[in-house]
């Protein structure tokens, strides 16, 4: 249950996702001004999301199977001065109910998790149970169609064909990911768990394809790319070529 690397390099990671999470946590704070927002980060590894969220004032529990990743998380938390706000738990999503009380998190993160677990529906069901009624589940997954385009541009046509035609979006036995998803498959997963889909957007929609020379062209270029990315994230046709797809579902 370690964090899976994206298929393409160079994309700006998480900007649009962070905006959605910020809005969700602001709503939690307004509803419960007497306590910190409670976040469960499943497969959170070394704390790429957990440490910044704790720094913003959230109480974060990270569940991961890797003791090395959790040790790195704890070190990073200490260095950031947020170790008291982060709880590291070694465990697997399949046994999540054994290490995390049900209905205990305002927001559950499963970022770059569903690509690597044995059973994606079962993992999502466990995360849903961990959310309070009315709470949210945030899922970030590797996009199938971006992987196809990336391989075409690299001249790896056989792999591109396999990712496009394989039921799970894999390029063969050597593939480290168990699946890649498109928007319809991600939506179907959330629907099957009874989650009300509130956000379905791309992350790394266009900035992935912007030439590096442009991305490295200084502050003005960085702003232009970020603004273009923000506009493209919610466009359905463009969303399908995002490196990652992000969904936020509400437990009802």
Give an overview of the whole structure:
The structure is a single chain. By secondary structure, the chain is of the alpha/beta class. Helices cover 41% and strands 21% of the residues. The chain has eleven helices and seven strands. It has a seven-stranded mixed beta sheet, sandwiched between helices.
Question: How do the helices and strands line up, and which of them pair or pack?
Answer:
Layout: H1 15-31, E1 38-42, H2 50-55, E2 59-64, H3 67-80, E3 86-90, H4 96-99, E4 105-111, H5 120-130, E5 131-142, H6 144-153, H7 157-165, H8 183-192, E6 195-203, H9 212-215, H10 219-232, H11 236-239, E7 244-251
Helix pairs in contact: 6-7
What tags apply to this protein structure?
7-stranded mixed sheet, 252 residues, single chain, alpha/beta, 41% helix, disordered N terminus
Structure, briefly:
With 252 residues, the chain is an alpha/beta fold.
Structural class call reads: alpha/beta
Amino- and carboxy-terminal Cα gap = 27 Å
Helix count from the secondary structure assignment: 11
Any low-confidence stretches, pLDDT <50, length ≥5? 1-12
Number of strands: 7
């Amino acid at each position: 249950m370690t964090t899976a690397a994206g298929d393409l390099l160079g994309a700006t990671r998480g900007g649009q996702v962070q905006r959605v999470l910020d809005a969700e946590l602001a709503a939690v704070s307004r509803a419960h001004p007497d306590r910190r927002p409670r976040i469960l980060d499943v497969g959170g590894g070394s704390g790429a999301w957990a440490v910044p969220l704790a720094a913003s004032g959230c109480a974060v529990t990270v569940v991961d199977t890797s003791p090395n990743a959790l040790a790195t998380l704890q070190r990073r938390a200490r260095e950031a001065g947020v170790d008291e706000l982060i709880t590291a738990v070694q465990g697997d999503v399949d046994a999540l109910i054994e290490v995390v009380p049900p209905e205990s998190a305002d927001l559950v993160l499963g970022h770059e998790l569903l690509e690597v677990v044995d059973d994606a529906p079962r993992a999502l069901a466990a995360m849903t149970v961990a959310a309070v009624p009315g709470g949210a589940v945030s899922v970030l997954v590797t996009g199938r169609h971006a992987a196809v385009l990336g391989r075409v541009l690299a001249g790896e046509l056989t792999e591109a064909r396999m990712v496009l035609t394989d039921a799970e979006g894999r390029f063969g036995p050597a593939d480290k990911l168990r699946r890649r998803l498109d928007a319809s498959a991600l939506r179907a997963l959330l629907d099957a768990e009874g989650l009300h889909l509130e956000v379905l957007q791309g992350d790394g929609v266009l900035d992935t394809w912007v030439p590096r020379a442009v991305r490295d062209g200084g502050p003005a270029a960085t702003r232009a790319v970020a603004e273009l990315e923000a506009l493209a994230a919610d466009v359905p046709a463009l969303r399908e070529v995002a490196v990652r797809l992000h969904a936020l579902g509400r437990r009802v």
